[in-house]
């Protein structure tokens, strides 16, 4: 399948708070890169799919939760490639008909459910060896798609931005850290010795401090020398997928005002962090901020099914 080198748009966002705090905010619309392979998953899969095609694998397998954006994107990508595809899913088979996995199965993904204890082995060499014996000649992509090929794909965002605008600070939500690693790498490639940019990752899970080491492990040699990034771990709002009614109200109100869609698991947490940081006076006057919209709207499907969100507050999602 072809993932073209098309630029995602950069748009200005106007908001009374931005005016009040004298900052300029733009948004990199990676959510518009592809109708199904959303946002950063498109960037992360780009070179992985190229590799898959070139090497003549018999199939591909990956890991994820039952509402995972990565599982959803990966299933579609394999479907387009005509490649057998397996998802090792954390949780019980009771989830197999939820929004995300219904689509994944629709695209031919075989879902293999494992308990939490087994799922925890997803990075262990012995587990990966077992899987490679069970599924010979399958390409194995880690959870969230975060590997070196993903970092390379994400790094292209910085090259695009360099042609689109000048900015001081870039914000991204952080799950596994692959996206932030890609941005750090891109910035270090383009601005070798002295980067002008501050790269802020907003961790969406609790106790995310360990991710700093994961991020460093994903960086190329060049990226390792750069210190212009920071993982902010205080904006998780209770943990992965958690948010208060007030958080939700703020996101929905911002969506109405901006005509954009931020969802509460990733992009919405980045947005709330931005608003909190503004109120705390974190940014200097005239600071030029770019938000990376990493997409992930399919994740709303599961939350609407579980009645954690009201369908009317969100764009309509396609049904499998
Ligand atoms: C997967 C995902 C992230 C997290 O990206 P990482 O590279 O895992 O840090 C952020 N936003 C959205 C919408 C995602 O689907």
Automatic annotation (TrEMBL):
Cofactor(s) for this UniProt protein: pyridoxal 5'-phosphate
Every Tryptophan synthase beta chain-like PALP domain range: 17-295
Family: Belongs to the ACC deaminase/D-cysteine desulfhydrase family.
One Pfam family linked to the record: PALP
Protein name as annotated: Pyridoxal-phosphate dependent enzyme
Domain of life: Bacteria
Keyword annotations from UniProtKB, A to Z: Pyridoxal phosphate
């Amino acid at each position: 399948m072809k993932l073209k080198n098309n630029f995602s748009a950069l748009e200005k966002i106007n908001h009374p708070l931005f005016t009040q705090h004298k900052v300029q905010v733009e948004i990199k619309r990676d959510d518009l890169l592809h109708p199904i392979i959303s946002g950063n998953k498109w960037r992360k899969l780009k070179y992985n799919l190229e590799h898959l095609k070139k090497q003549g694998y018999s199939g591909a397998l990956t890991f994820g939760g039952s509402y995972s954006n990565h599982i959803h994107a990966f299933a579609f990508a394999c479907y387009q490639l005509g490649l057998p595809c397996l998802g090792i899913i954390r949780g019980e088979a009771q989830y197999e008909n939820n929004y995300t996995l219904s689509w994944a199965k629709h695209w031919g993904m075989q879902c293999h459910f494992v308990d939490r204890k087994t799922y925890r082995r997803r990075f262990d060499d012995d587990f990966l060896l077992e899987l490679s014996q069970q599924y010979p000649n399958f390409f194995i992509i880690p959870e969230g798609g975060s590997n070196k090929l993903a970092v390379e794909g994400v790094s292209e965002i910085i090259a695009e931005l360099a042609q689109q605008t000048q900015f001081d600070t870039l914000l991204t939500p952080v799950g596994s850290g692959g996206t932030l690693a890609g941005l750090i790498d891109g910035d270090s490639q383009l601005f070798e010795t002295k980067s002008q940019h501050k790269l802020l990752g907003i961790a969406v899970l609790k106790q995310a401090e360990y991710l700093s080491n994961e991020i460093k492990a994903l960086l190329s040699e060049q990226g390792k020398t750069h210190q212009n990034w920071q993982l902010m771990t205080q904006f998780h709002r209770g943990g992965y997928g958690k948010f208060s009614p007030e958080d939700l109200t703020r996101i929905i109100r911002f969506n109405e005002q901006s005509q954009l869609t931020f969802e509460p698991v990733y992009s919405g947490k980045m947005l709330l962090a931005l608003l909190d940081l503004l109120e705390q006076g974190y940014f200097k006057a005239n600071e030029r901020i770019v938000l990376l919209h990493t997409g992930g709207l399919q994740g709303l499907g599961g939350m609407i099914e579980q009645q954690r969100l009201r369908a009317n507050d969100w764009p309509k999602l396609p049904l499998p």
